[in-house]
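Need tokens for this chain, all 190 residues.
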Amino acid sequence: MSEARSADPDIAALNACLQKIASSADRGAFMQLFDHFGPRLKYFLLQKGCTDGEAEDLVQDVMLTVWRKAKQFDPGKAAASTWIFTIARNRFIDTKRRERVMVDFDTCPEAEQVSEETAEDEITQSELAADVAAAMAELPQAQAEVIQMAFIDGKSHSEIAEELGVPLGTVKSRIRLAFARLREVLESHR
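Here are the structure tokens for all 190 residues:
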């Protein structure tokens, strides 16, 4: 076992790989990180209850995020492994939040209580959802991104600031501006 550990890149080498990716999009450094972390991330996700396919998809997503967000890595705050596993943990949580439980209406007593008013409310909600989606499409990309992260992905403002690499005040300002724009667009849709 000690032989395997000595063959693993050390913390400084992994940090250096991330810095090479950030500074020059070094594919060799990325492959080294992928070869090192890919199996470890998959094992981590399998231990969290993912299926083999889900774990592989999440590993791909995490490593794509590592490639795209490498400039946000700060070796003064965390080691490469901590940073990458934090991304994996967050992706896992996001995935679980998005999963929906299907209800078997035949065994659900609440399903029998659906009335015309409830159906009408659902149609109104569906129309509102379509209006919101259309309004979101009209937002500037930076504003739509923070709204997505805060209200759909369920991230806190500080998590968003950290992930985007912007000050907390910028996140709050983008959300405020997005709400004002959404209100304006939704009012014009009615």
